[in-house]
Design a protein that fits this description.
single chain, 320 residues, alpha/beta, Rossmann fold, 2 domains, 6-stranded parallel sheet, two-stranded antiparallel sheet, 13 helices, elongated
Length: 320
Amino acid sequence: MSGVEKAWEPEAPGALDGVRVLDLSRLVAGNAVTHVLADHGAEVIKIEKPGVGDDLRNWKTEGVSTHWKVYCRNKKSVTLDFRHPRAIELMLDLVATSRVLVENFKPGTLEAMGLGPDILHARNPDLIVVRISGWGQDGMWAHKPGFGSLVEAMSGFAAMNGFGDRAPVLPPLALADMIAGLYGAFSVMVAIREIELKGGRGQVIDLPLIDPIHSVLGPIVANYDLTGKVPERLGSLSNQTAPRNVYRCRDGKYVALSGSMQTMAERLFRTIGRPELIDDPRFGPTPTGSATTMNSTRSWRSTWPSGPRRSVWRSSRRPG
C-alpha cells in the first residue's frame, strides 16, 4: 500500500480547521449540512432560540435526543433572541468572522429579519450562504410550505417505493433532508474552492429539498420521457437486475441477493447448483421479461445447497 499510515489522533485538526460555520437551521437538513462540515474540523456554531432550542432536540428515543446527538455532534450552541434590539448587530458580528451561514427559514424570512444576503455580504463579502427550503427561493412554489415528507412524495420517490398492490411508501427516516445535507455540504466545498483558488467572492447556495432527492432517482424521468410509462412499484425487485430480492431462509431469517453484474449472477447460479440458468434469457446480460418473472424463485430456490451457510458462501467467492 502506498502512502504513509498515520495513527489515530482524536485531537488532530481536520481539513476544515479554521472554517467557522453559523447554523441557524432547525431539524435535519441544515444540521446534516453542518454535521458533515463539523466532522471534518469546521467550527460550527448553532444559533438557537432561547428556552426552546432546535426542534430536533425533541426527537427522542426513550427520553434521549438521539437525533440531536448524532446530527449536532462536534458543534457549539449559543442562544440568540432575534426579537431583541441588539440581536441583528450581534449576529452580524459573528458573520464578519465566519465563512459559511446555513438557514432553512421560509423564503423571504431572512430578508424580513434584516439579514438578507445583500446585508450579510456587505458585512462579509466572502460569506457562503446556504438557503434550504422545500421548493427553492424563487419560482411558482417558493411561497408554499415545504417539508421532507412532502418532497419525498412530490419527487416520485414514494410512488416507486413499496409494492404494486399497496399504497406508495414514504421512507421511515428523513431521507430527503439527509440527501440534501450531503449535497449542501458538497456545494459549500465547491464554493470554498472557488473563493480560495479562483478569487471568487461570497455566494448564495439555493438548496431546495426537491432537487437532491430528484437527482438520486437517476434516469426515472428520462425513462418516462422515453417510454411514456409510469414505473410500477416492485418492492425489492428490479427491472434491470435478476435475480434481485430479499429471500426468506429455512431458519426464518432473510438474505438479500443481487445479480447486479452478469458474473455475479453466474456465480450465484453455480453456487445453488443451477448452472443451466446462466443461459436462461431471463437472467442474461440484457434480461427479458417482467421484473416479477425475472426474479421468481420457484424455478431455482428448491435446489439451494443443504450444507452449512458459511461453506456455501465460501464456495461462491472468487478465487484469490
